[in-house]
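Hi U.,

Before I forget, here's the chain from the pilot set. I'm dumping it here mostly so it's searchable later in email.
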Amino acid sequence: MKRMLLALLFPATTVLAESPLPVVTYPIPVHVENANSGLFIDLAKAVADKAGIPIRISVQPPPRAIQNFSGGSHAMLFPALDVLFPADTTIVRSPEAIDCKEDFVFTREGTPRLTSLEDLAGHRVGITRGYPYAREVSDGKLFVVEPANSDEANLKKLVAGHIDAFILDEKTGIKALEATGLTQKVQYDQSRPVSRQEVYYAFQNTPEGRQLAERFSAALAELKQDGRYQSITHGITFAQGCAS
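Structure:
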């Protein structure tokens, strides 16, 4: 019945052909491990199935994924954030958000907890190259930004005292802590994110792209309502948007 309702609301066009829709994403620990594994991968497949649209997922390095999507070779990019695109780029967003991406400040155990941009003033702050930070973090003027090639490298620098803080999202940070065995040496305040960004599915600015955005959004909303959105995350529940 729900599929019939979707079909009535969004009649089939060439964009809904049987051939898989080419979509592109980029590696994110926990979220996108490969084309078949990761929280965002599992969710995208479930949303596409609910929408009745077969997809073909390509995982590419972040700059290439964004460039190929912007060049029109892929119909959808996920997870998308405003910070990935130049301010004058015209894309179509899924009205329903995938997630609210919250980043936190990780500090050494036993040192004062830092939770805001103001708290970071004058400190050396680690960030990971290629990670989509909010502009107020990556372009921070109050503190010294020190990039590293991996989350694990940043955590080791933090514990060694080479940086004063490290900014990352909670899920990825926890996995990196477990991988390095530094869980007991690092702290963060999970109730106070330093930045928040809405995460969505991005589509081409065409009639077909707008229709896809509506179909994926409607399917995503259904998954949230029936509980599958929560269960797909394997116990790690995504936020449902940054509005609240």
